[in-house]
Amino acid sequence: MASSKLLSQPRWFRFLPRNLSNARLFSELASQPPVSEPQNNIESKSNNNFSSKASSTPSSLKEPELAKFSAIADTWWDYEGPFKPLHKMNPTRLAFIRSTLCRHFGKDPLSPRPFEGLRVIDVGCGGGILSEPLARMGATVTGIDAVEKNIKIARLHANLDPTTSTIEYCCTTAEKLVDEQRKFDAVISLEVIEHVANPAEFCKSLSSLIDHGGATVVSTINRSMRAYATAIVAAEYLLQWLPKGTHQWSSFLTPEELTMILKRASIDVKEMAGFVFNPISGRWSLSDDISVNFIAFGTKENESETV
Ligand SMILES: C[S@@+](CC[C@H](N)C(=O)[O-])C[C@H]1O[C@@H](n2cnc3c(N)ncnc32)[C@H](O)[C@@H]1O
């Protein structure tokens, strides 16, 4: 299995923050001005469909990004629609999540409900593509998204099946749940960080949601030329898998940058894998090639070890 191969041959290890010459400076990442308006302005708008209550942490909301997702919210469960790539990638990302979380929490990966007893939050859950299988795997799932329409679709779809109707869906943000002092065993956020206003602050919020001994899984797209060619030019313009403008190349993070901002948020990245697409089979698989899509598993450091 590719993820266990990664443990013995961690090619991604070279991306850990030792040589930072090619990385954007952390301070630059942290200080990038959010494209969205300040939190107070967001709060004062009553006509939006986005999560809008104020939080003491800087807002992760980037309104133009949220508007894009709101516009296509009714296509979440169209397997041939704009979220087809996420549906296609789902078994592969679930394989990584199953393997890393089971190892971390001492669960049996071969069990039909390996996540029984785990409280899992899916941050930026969209229509629930990931939340639903997590619930079927036994987790007590909370799914949150900043777009109200997404949450409505997610709830409607989850209610079609008794094993997923237990999912707690809420239109909110990670930073607001931090204010409410919510804690989870596993905090998962897939394909969201490239859409938030401030990735470093977002990672701090994810970290604050992790309970003692917990873990996190984050996936995103590498800011590489290959990612530009495949995730933007091919996926959006040539193959038209995604609406044009879905992704901004400059918002992508390299594995090195993601590892670094997670580290600053007291999360140690322990394992990383890439996703590669086979155009002949039409399937995704785990790989040690992290040059385009990649996923990271990390654990929370003890408070006393915090940098
Ligand atoms: C590419 S989709 C990924 C959906 C889901 N995580 C998956 O992989 O199936 C990104 C999602 O993140 C949500 N989102 C973007 N910014 C957010 C934020 N600051 N807080 C919560 N959700 C956010 C969007 O509304 C959208 O549903």
UniProtKB/TrEMBL annotation:
Binding site for Mg(2+): 191, 194-195
Protein name: Ubiquinone biosynthesis O-methyltransferase, mitochondrial
Coiled-coil parts of chain: none
Record-linked CDD domains: AdoMet_MTases
Role according to the record: O-methyltransferase required for two non-consecutive steps during ubiquinone biosynthesis. Catalyzes the 2 O-methylation of 3,4-dihydroxy-5-(all-trans-polyprenyl)benzoic acid into 4-hydroxy-3-methoxy-5-(all-trans-polyprenyl)benzoic acid. Also catalyzes the last step of ubiquinone biosynthesis by mediating methylation of 3-demethylubiquinone into ubiquinone. Also able to mediate the methylation of 3-demethylubiquinol into ubiquinol.
Entries under InterPro entries matching the protein: SAM-dependent_MTases_sf, UbiG_MeTrfase
GO biological process: methylation
Ligand binding (S-adenosyl-L-methionine): 93, 124, 145, 190
Membrane topology of this protein: Peripheral membrane protein
A GO molecular function held by the record: 3-demethylubiquinone 3-O-methyltransferase activity
Gene Ontology CC annotations of this record: extrinsic component of mitochondrial inner membrane
Subunit composition and interactions: Component of a multi-subunit COQ enzyme complex.
Biased composition (Low complexity): 40-60
Family under the similarity heading: Belongs to the class I-like SAM-binding methyltransferase superfamily. UbiG/COQ3 family.
EC code(s) of this entry: 2.1.1.64, 2.1.1.-, 2.1.1.114
Cell location: Mitochondrion inner membrane
Keyword Membrane: yes
Keyword vocabulary terms for this entry: Magnesium, Membrane, Metal-binding, Methyltransferase, Mitochondrion, Mitochondrion inner membrane, S-adenosyl-L-methionine, Transferase, Ubiquinone, Ubiquinone biosynthesis
Enzymatic reactions: a 3,4-dihydroxy-5-(all-trans-polyprenyl)benzoate + S-adenosyl-L-methionine = a 4-hydroxy-3-methoxy-5-(all-trans-polyprenyl)benzoate + S-adenosyl-L-homocysteine + H(+); a 3-demethylubiquinone + S-adenosyl-L-methionine = a ubiquinone + S-adenosyl-L-homocysteine; a 3-demethylubiquinol + S-adenosyl-L-methionine = a ubiquinol + S-adenosyl-L-homocysteine + H(+)
Keyword Mitochondrion: yes
Organism: Corchorus olitorius
Pathway note: Cofactor biosynthesis; ubiquinone biosynthesis
Major subcellular location class: mitochondrion
Name of one Pfam family that matches: Methyltransf_23
